[in-house]
Design brief:
By secondary structure, the chain is of the alpha+beta class. The protein contains 12 helices and 20 strands. The chain is globular and about 60 Å long. Bound molecules: adenosine monophosphate (AMP). The site of adenosine monophosphate has 13 residues, from strand 7 and strand 15.
Length: 380
C-alpha cells in the first residue's frame, strides 16, 4: 500500500528528498513538509507545506496526522513530541535524541569504542580553564544543541581567548574538544533499511572553508588502508546506531592516518550530493528506499565527481540574479531560495566525469572555472 510521507524540514535536503519521492510514486502517495519559511524549497518542488517551527508540538502533530511515515532533513525536531506519536519515524527518535546533543553523541560513540577526539562537558568558566589544562591548546569550544555548519564552534588557540570564547556562547550548554590536527576531512554516507540491510557509498574527501563545506571530491584521494579503516568504523557506527535511513558519518584523517569521527548526521548529507549524478542510486532515493523497507539500491560510484557548494557571498543580503549554466558533464542545482545571505547554501554543481576520461585534478580545474561563472550577483 502506498504511504504518505512527512518530512521535518523543507530546505534543500527536503527538496531533493521530495523530488526523489515523486519518482517513487508507486510507493508514495503524498508528500508533506513542515518548515517555518513560507514556500520553502521542498514546497517549490511540489510538496504540500505546513508552515511552522520544527519544535512546534501542534505543527508536528498536524504533520503526523497527514503522514504514514515521517523522516527529517534536520536534527532539531522536538524528540519529546516525536517519541509520543503513533506514526512511524525513521531514523528513530531515540537515535535523533542521542545525535541532537553533541555531548551525548560523543559519549555514545566513545562508550561504543568508536574513535573520537578527547572531550568534556563544560559547566563554568573555571571548569573550562581546568579542562583546557588537561587537554592542552588548541581546543574547540562547542555549543551542544542546534549548532550546524560550524556556527556553534569557537577555536581557542591561546590562554587569553578562553574567557572571550566562554562569554561568546553566554548561557548555552557547552562542551570542549581537543582540536584535531587533521590532514583531511572525509565522510562515508551509509544506509540501513528497515530490514537491517546495511550499505555504504565510497568514502569522499571534504574541503571546508569557514567551517562550511565548500567542496566534496568523490572518491577521496587516500590510500586503501585509510579507506578500509574508515569503512570499518562506518560499519561499526551503523551497527550501534538504531533506525533506518541514510547517515552521514563525518571523520578526520589525522597526521598519522588514523581515523577520528567528528560527527554523525542521521539524515541525507551535503557530502552525498554528488550521488545525484555519480551513482546509480542517489542518497535521496536511497534514504526513501531504506525507510520504506525496499531493497537498497546500488552504492557503486559510477563516475568520479567533484561537488561544489554555491554559497551566498559575504557582505551582501538580498535578491540575486538567476544563476544559469550549460556545460557537458556539469550539473547545476539551485535550491530556489529567493534571498542570498552570507554563507547561505543557495545551490551546488557537480562536475561529473561522464566519459571516464578525466582525472581528479582535471575535474577540480573545471570546478574552479565554473565557480567563477555561477557567482551570486545582486538583482539591483
Ligand atoms: P561541526 O559543526 O562540529 O561538525 O564542525 C564544523 C567543522 O569544524 C568541521 O568540519 C571541522 O572542519 C571543524 N572541526 C570540528 N571539530 C573539530 C576538531 N575537534 N578538531 C578540528 N577541527 C574540528
Amino acid at each position: 500500500m502506498k504511504k504518505r510521507l512527512g518530512i521535518i524540514g523543507g530546505g534543500q535536503l527536503g527538496m531533493m528528498i521530495t523530488e526523489a519521492a515523486q519518482d517513487l510514486s508507486d510507493e508514495i502517495s503524498k508528500i508533506t513538509v513542515l518548515d517555518p519559511t513560507d514556500n520553502c524549497p521542498a514546497a517549490q518542488a511540489g510538496a504540500k507545506q505546513i508552515v511552522g517551527d520544527f519544535k512546534d508540538k501542534n505543527a508536528i502533530v498536524k504533520l503526523a496526522e497527514q503522514s504514514d511515515i515521517i523522516t527529517y532533513e534536520i536534527e532539531s525536531g522536538n524528540t519529546d513530541v516525536l517519541n509520543k506519536l503513533n506514526t512511524e519515524i525513521e531514523p528513530s527518535p531515540s537515535t535523533l535524541s542521542i545525535i541532537q546533543d553533541k555531548l551525548s553523541q560523543k559519549k555514545f560513540l566513545s562508550e561504543n569504542e568508536l574513535p573520537v577526539s578527547e572531550f568534556y562537558e563544560i559547566i563554568s568558566l573555571d571548569d573550562l580553564h581546568e579542562k583546557i589544562r588537561e587537554l592542552g591548546l588548541p581546543v574547540l569550544l562547542k555549543v551542544r544543541h542546534d549548532a550546524y555548519d560550524g556556527r556553534g564552534n569557537f577555536k581557542i588557540v591561546s590562554e587569553t581567548e578562553i574567557e572571550k570564547a566562554y562569554q561568546y556562547f553566554d548561557g548555552k550548554s557547552l562542551m570542549v574538544e581537543k582540536f584535531v590536527d587533521f590532514k583531511m576531512e572525509v565522510s562515508v554516507i551509509a544506509v540501513r533499511n528497515t530490514k537491517g540491510e546495511i550499505a555504504a557509498y565510497p568514502m569522499v574527501e571534504n574541503i571546508h572553508e569557514n567551517n562550511i563545506l565548500k567542496m566534496t571530491i568523490a572518491p577521496a584521494r587516500v590510500s586503501d588502508s585509510v579507506i578500509n579503516d574508515a569503512n570499518e568504523i562506518a560499519k561499526k557506527t551503523m551497527h550501534v546506531l538504531k533506525g533506518a535511513g541514510v547517515f552521514g558519518i563525518e571523520m578526520f584523517v589525522d597526521q598519522n592516518s588514523k581515523i577520528i569521527i567528528n560527527e554523525i548526521a542521521p539524515r541525507v548529507h551535503n557530502s552525498g550530493h554528488h550521488t545525484l549524478q555519480s551513482c546509480k542510486t542517489s542518497q535521496f532515493e536511497q534514504h526513501l528506499r531504506a525507510i520504506l523497507g525496499l531493497d537498497l539500491g546500488s552504492t557503486d560510484l559510477v563516475h568520479k565527481t567533484v561537488m561544489y557548494n554555491i554559497l551566498g557571498p559575504g557582505g551582501f543580503e538580498g535578491k540575486y540574479k538567476p544563476v544559469q549554466l550549460e556545460k557537458d558533464g556539469v550539473y547545476l542545482k539551485m535550491y530556489g531560495k529567493n534571498v542570498s545571505k552570507p554563507q547561505r547554501k543557495l545551490g551546488h554543481f557537480n562536475v561529473v566525469d561522464i566519459n571516464d576520461s578525466k582525472n581528479t585534478s582535471e575535474l577540480l580545474g573545471i570546478a574552479d572555472e565554473i565557480k567563477n561563472i555561477v557567482t551570486i550577483v545582486s538583482l539591483d
